[in-house]
Amino acid sequence: MTTLTRQDLNFGQVVADILCEFLEVAIHLILYVREVYPSGIFQKRKKYNVPVQMSCHPELNQYIQDTLHCVKPLIEKNDAEKVAVVIMDKEHHPVERFVFEISQPPLLSISSDTLLSHVEQLLRAFILKISVCDAVLNNNPPDSTLRQQWSFSKCIHPIGQAWCSFTVLVHTRDAATRNMEKVQVIKDFPWIVADEQEVHMQEPRLIPLKTMTSDIVKMQLYVEERAQKT
Amino acid sequence: MDELYLDNIDEYVNDQDKIVTYKWLSLTLGVHVNTAKQMLYHYLDHKRKESSAPLHATYLVSGKFVHKGQPSHRVSVVKEDQLEDFKSKMSLIVSVHVYSVQKALLKDSGPLYSVDYDAVKDNLKNCSRYSAISCADAVPVSSALQARDVQRAPTPEPENRKLCANGDADVASKPSTKPQKGIMGMFANKSAPKKQDSGKAVTSEQKEDAPVDAAKSKPEAKANPMTNFFGLSQAAKKPVTHEEAARSSSSSSAAAAAEQQRPGEEKKAAAVELPKEAKKDSRSKSKRLVDSDSEEEKMEKKKRRRIKKPEPESSDEDVIPDSPQQMETREPSPSPKKKAEPLSHSRQGKSETKTRKRRRVLKSRTSLDDEGCMVTEKGYESESYSEAEDDARASKAAKGLVPAKAAPSTKADEKRSQKKTPASANKGSKQASIMGFFQKK
């Protein structure tokens, strides 16, 4: 097992890979648990040796993958401060926000064999926590819009009966977004600066869910919830 | 016992928002599982009387059940609202007890497994210390014996499977490959082509068993290093779901016929099927043995059963792959001779012989139907593959077997290569042996 330190070129890649894999699983799980999509499209799969729910819908999966593909370079360079999964009601006001705050500890090295299983254990705990977050959150408003709008791409697809919609926001440090606008990582998948309407939440209630500190990454998950959801 | 435990459980459930299963509670507080079950029951009772914040509970029900005229023993974890309904369907109820208590209403049973996973992993050596299941004959196999068994296993393999003589190493390997193949069956439309290739080894059973069996084989796979766990549950191996019971009886005859016809030869599809058939054989045999069950024996298999009611939609999927799977078992037997020639050719040479073969693979097809709704269907498609490709990956797979040691950038690769290993081990080595990948450790 080679020792990787921060100076190594692919160290950032390694950490970003782990995080993006985790974020993908987490986003699918959030969509399942918060009933953003009907549970019929979800299928049980395995990650970190525990069962998780993942959607079968190809376009949804592609959207999430593309989003994270674009986020990955930001995480590699430690530019991404927060990744937020925002659930919005039909007027596109945020109702709930799952925020993953990511930071990297200064002294980084991947050297020990047990590190990865330790990280796996911590991520497993995150997954478990998301599964039971129902207990602390109010129900989202049911919605009868038949339109699911993707925030960061230009297509609108009807997917049966959608309830709320969701979007992924990334808060970056400094001016990292300028690079993102210049370089389109994925064709036809532009990132735009989020509207104030999509970001601002009225009377948010903060509910911390989980924190983890490991040698390679520090992550915190909390939920901001609007006081009145209907 | 003092009342302190009520406060403890209260803290776990309400303050920390944990799911408290009886197994987790017994390992955390260091009490016998039966005590833990009673603690949970009293806590639930106490809280319900106080009528404070709503609590949800799941129950484990086990007893006799007659399914389509076939008596079977069923062990299930059910939600509270389905408890009475479930109990009324059983012909004889052997045990009912609280499985878990939590504040949130769980949508599916996945988290229940996650809760116990880490607790059991931390107590790997003595996870059965508080268990009520015990077998006097079950002793941990020493590592030297294990290594010898592993090397012995490839040669007398068909007999081994029937006898389950080697018990730990043998049986342990099969369930560990099952969930890996199960994942591949579910990872259908992944964009990476690599996944496509590695998904070739998938057969029907993963798909239909996936919702039920994945959960079942996961505890077994987790228990893979825990040889004493397997020694324990070996003798008292729990009967299967009613679907599997029906299937094992029908396909066991096919498997027996198939086995006789090809005593020492390998077939790709059959080789993959064979371990599962044998495993089911052993299960159906032990099912008869354990007819007179006591409550304690159920506990080992509690996780293998999933909540039946909330998954009516999966029952349709279960039915569809049933017929292809049976067809597949019969398919090798009528045509052993045809495949014997190309196979013997490939076996004669070294393992680098490139042979293109066709095999049936479970694939997922997504299409738009008339109403514009997306329909995802899982079906069998013939796919040709080359032995050489899998051999090339065999070496990668061997290295990827110990997850803790590999770099995380190849974590995804490992998971893929882990699944490829059973297929490649089957093809790469001379014998049809899943034990092949144990040797490369």
TrEMBL record, chain A:
Gene Ontology, cellular component aspect: nucleus; zeta DNA polymerase complex
Keyword Transmembrane (UniProt): no
Domain of life, per lineage: Eukaryota
Keywords attached to this entry: DNA damage, Nucleus
GO BP annotation list: DNA damage response
Location (main, coarse): nucleus
InterPro entries referenced in this protein's UniProt entry, alphabetically: HORMA_dom, HORMA_dom_sf, Mad2-like
Location of the HORMA domain: 13-223
Subcellular localization, as worded in the UniProt entry: Nucleus
Matches recorded under PROSITE patterns: HORMA (PS50815)
Name under which the protein is recorded: Mitotic spindle assembly checkpoint protein MAD2B
Organism expressing this protein natively: Gasterosteus aculeatus aculeatus (three-spined stickleback)
TrEMBL record, chain B:
GO cellular component: delta DNA polymerase complex
Alphabetical list of Pfam families matching this protein: CDC27
Record-given protein name: DNA polymerase delta subunit 3
Region (Disordered) residue spans: 149-441
Subcellular localization: Nucleus
PANTHER family xref list: DNA POLYMERASE DELTA SUBUNIT 3
Keywords: DNA replication, Nucleus
